[in-house]
Amino acid sequence: MPYLQQHLHCCPISHCICSLSKFRKQFLYDEVEAEVDLCFDQFIYKLANKIFAYYKTLASTMLLDKAFDTAVYREKVKIRKVGQQVNA
């Protein structure tokens, strides 16, 4: 969720209104519009990566052999499961 707030807040709509009404400059509006498009593209890219990583992890944990999963649990080795954060 912080990614959403960061990217949607990067260029408010008030800049577009100000560039057209106060300064009466179309190129300012075009620049602001380009920045908003860039922010939206970055948001979609990051969201797609998060979704892909989630389902990749889910699929890989489904394919684990039950005997292997039990052995890992007995040895107290941590394997990242779906929904767990990686501590970096």
Would you give an account of this structure?
The chain has one domain (2-75). The chain is rod-shaped and about 70 Å long. The model has no long low-confidence stretch (mean pLDDT 76). The longest helix is centred in the middle third of the chain and has 38 residues, at 26-63. The chain is mainly α and 88 residues long. Helix 1 (2-9) packs antiparallel against helix 3 (26-63) and helix 2 (13-21) packs antiparallel against helix 3 (26-63). The protein has four helices and no strands.
* SSE arrangement, N to C: HHHH
End-to-end distance: 19 Å
Number of strands: 0
Q: What fraction, in percent, of the residue positions are helical?
A: over 70%
Average of the residue pLDDT scores: 76
Strand-residue proportion: under 5%
What's the story with the biggest beta sheet?
none
Alpha-beta content class: mainly alpha
Shape: rod-shaped
Count of individual helical segments? 4
Tally of distinct domains: 1
Radius of gyration: 22 Å
Low-confidence stretches: none
What's the structural blueprint in terms of helices and strands?
Layout: H1 2-9, H2 13-21, H3 26-63, H4 66-75
Helix pairs in contact: 1-3, 2-3
Distinctive features:
single chain, 4 helices
